[in-house]
Structures are given as C-alpha cells and as structure tokens.
Amino acid sequence: xxxxxxxxxxxxxxxxxxxxxxxxxxxxxxxxxxxxxxxxxxxxxxxxxxxxxxxxxxxxxxxxx
Length: 65
Description:
Layout: H1 5-21, H2 30-44, H3 49-64
C-alpha cells in the first residue's frame, strides 16, 4: 500500500499541533501514542521511507564515531 504524501503531511501537522497544546511533563496519552504509531507505519509505507532510512543510518554512524 502506497501512502499519499499529503496524507502523511496532514497527519504530521495534526500531531505537531496536538503535541504543542498538551501539558508539559505529562506522558503520552493513549490517543497520542496510537496516532504517533500510525504515523510511523504510514511513513514506512510511503515513498519517503528510503530517505528516512538513509537519514537515520547517517545519524547513527555520526553518533557512533
């Protein structure tokens, strides 16, 4: 299943707004946890996934040096 990047962008904006309005110091609520998990799965099934994988690999190599 390919995910449209506009759907991924819309979900990213929604998560960002939700995180800005929550109270500091609290843990993630169940809804936030599920929404962020869904965002991760959608990102992994998008065409942007190889770019994210390369970015994470480069970051991990930079840290371990």
